[in-house]
Amino acid sequence: MSRRNIELLLLLIASPIVIVLFAMLVVTGGQTLSVETLAVPLGIFGSFLVAHLAVRKLAPAADPALLPIAFALSGIGIAFVTRILPDKALSQVVWLFAGVVVMILVLAVVRNLDKLANYKYTLMVVGILFLLSPMLPVIGHESGGGQLWLSIGPFSFQPGEIAKILIVFFIAAYLAANREMLSVFTWQVGPFNLPSLPTLLPLIVMWALAFVVVVLEKDLGLALVLFSVFVIMLYVATGKKLYLVVSIGLAVIAAVALYSFMGHVQARVAIWQDPFADAQGAGFQLVQSIYSLADGDLFGQGIGRGMGGNPIAEGGIPVAESDFIFPVIAEETGLMGAAGVLLLYLCFAIRGVVTAARAKSDVSSFTAVGLTSIIVLQAFIIVGGVTRLIPLTGITLPFISQGGSSLIASFIIVGCLLRCGDEGTGVDSEMRQTGTIGSHGTNSVLGRVALGKRLTGTMIIYSVLFGVLVANLTYLMVIKAPEYQNMPSNNHTMAREATMERGTISTVDGTVLAQSVRQEDGTYKREYPAGTLAAHIVGYTSQKFGSAGIEAAYNDTLRGEQNFASFTDVVNSLAGIQTKGNDVTLTIDATIQRAAQNVLEGQVGACVVMNPETGAVLALASSPTFDAADYEALLTAASDNSSDSSELFNRATQALYAPGSTFKMVTLAAALQDGVATADTMYDSPGTMDIGNAPVTNVKKRNYGRITLEMAMWYSSNTVFGQVGVQLGADLLVQMAGNFGFNEDIDFPLPLATSLMPDPEEMTTWETAWAACGEPVGEHESPAGPQATVMQMCLVGCAIANEGALMQPYLVDGVYNANGERSFSPMPLKLKQAIDKDTAAREIEIMKGVVTDGTGSRAAIDGVAVAGKTGTHERGDGDDDSWFVGLAPANDPKVVVAVAIERGESGAGAAAAHDVLETALEVTGAL
Length: 927
Prior knowledge:
With 927 residues, the protein is an alpha+beta fold. It contains 30 helices and 26 strands. Residues 426-445 and 573-577 have low confidence and may be disordered.
């Protein structure tokens, strides 16, 4: 098949890509597919057919893939410009037609690129004038932070786009005439041959020109492209890798100097390092780009369904049609589509390099390399910038970005590459040198083998660049996407949440705690009709402040993106069909929860109620609490430092307290299980005694005389349990605490602080004695302990109540889809066997006496045996924290309650536990 027939076939293969893109836009816009609605892609295809016919006539031996690749890229560009700015679409199509015409004119007028070498200095002067022309008064003007444009009446263009091409022509001609001189290094330093200053002069001049462009025009992108293109052409011409090393050194020097003295460069670097530091200001554009990329995932939101291409007020990216068109493409076509676009650029690079390898002369070859590098480097720099791989420089994406200057320049490059390919001699011929090089004469040639090696190296560089881009895209769109999507400031997520009906959150007995209510504009507002009931458990979801509690932990479930109840749910999710989210039913019982909150009202503290056999949390209360409907006012006050936001702090799971004598449950379990003591073991219980050369005292220094260990538990004797702690030793005491969950991260839907015990190697005898009593007194590298959450002490009680088995705590009883079909039921899970069954039974018997004969009498309930343990932590300021852990019925415990009240009166914890236990037993039918 001939080259031109291959070109026609590739155009036909590429045409469905462009037509389908436009068809998707038509369907998304609610129009009917017809010849009229698809006139633009059909017209574009027609213009390229005309171009194909012209190439058949004017450059029959040219590369067959360049024109189809340009068609695919420019068609994608027109489609997305139409999607972003429909008003600019017509002008962009006109510019595309003009670009095709200019490309044909280039083929018609430039019949031999070698002849341009005779005008290389003229080309250089004109190119530099074009480059600096935006500095002219009146007609030159700044846009987007750079002095890049010329405006004459209503017409404006970027002369730098044409300047790049003219400068490449000059460089190609210069290198063709001087490559042998530039390849000879005459300065010998030891065993090394280095280039002399005259040899380095072209590189230094080009570096200086790029430096001037940055300083005068604030155009980082253009400067980087010019310098990089020159370096690549210099390497291909000479094969000297030392030029690459020197170029990197010069680039580093320029970067340091520019960063040190130019605020513009400092701002760009600062935005690149942390765009979220000023997400609503300087970093806004890049942040919106990142949000769009994160939404793209693997397969995208669908053409016309992304937010990056919308108006800014609707989550769009500023200047999305130009510099930031790639994130819009990535959001709507996904990683697969974005990688496909990059693959087209890589294919363009491959065909450009192949064209350079086939060129008949040095000028043609170097021109092909330079022009290909312009397209490749521009694509890498702008895509790298908008994806935060490198600092943003603000150049256009060739063929795709909106703008006439860029499109015309891209098609001039295609025309020149087609001419280079048409002049090609094939791989079996030597390249003819254009011009003379002193005594070397006119017969000097750059051999195909040498050229091939250098072009292979260049192609490897191109491939690595695009490989890095795809890897970075994968990182942003797949790995980091959930993090970006869940950011409280992500306005894309906020907007989608507003149109989504989240599922309800309710108690196990049917009280609705959270629901989404449809508004007149079709959006949904999250409401919390139960007021303060279980507010710390439910949490909140906010467009401004993010989410917390079950709203956060079960976010995907409430959105309908997890816990599918049927195959239909799965299909709807994969198809992107939005349905009502799943309803979440908690294990919380509203009656028990109210009882727990009522006993804490007006006080500071927490209460947790659990089923010891399953691990289900029946109530979890923290005081002070808040009305869930007023959470935004509280959060706003907290962010303004006008409130301490203590109402939002969940003391049941996040506050670490000294557990006081409730920890004696752990100490007693260790003593009984390891045979250190029995319930009848006798101990002296003076009001105070020295243990480890320091005092251990009972509350109010009460002297209980000589008593059994069982009685010491009843009366909460510190001096007895201090002795028991020393008998156990620090290792055994810390190990038993670990059996109950201390020093472990326990999985729980709400943030749960880890309860702490010290490193036993650091514990003194006195500290061990006090730790056995539940008082953290140590000062060392590891944390003092014990320190426990109320949840943790409830778990200790649950393990004792459940024959020594510690169950996994859970808060969700079930998940249901919009049709009421159940998709999740909890399975009780045993975390560990904290103590054996016999030890647990003996401990319950002892703890029953705490309520009947000891310090916990206020927890007694008529008709039901209650086992429990009081606790008092002396705060050191004259006030105490009051604790109680209780379980009932003692003979077959169904409910465990743990209560801690800060600065509570003596017995306050037991009195509070009584009310909660009684309510829970009534609800569960045990009373």
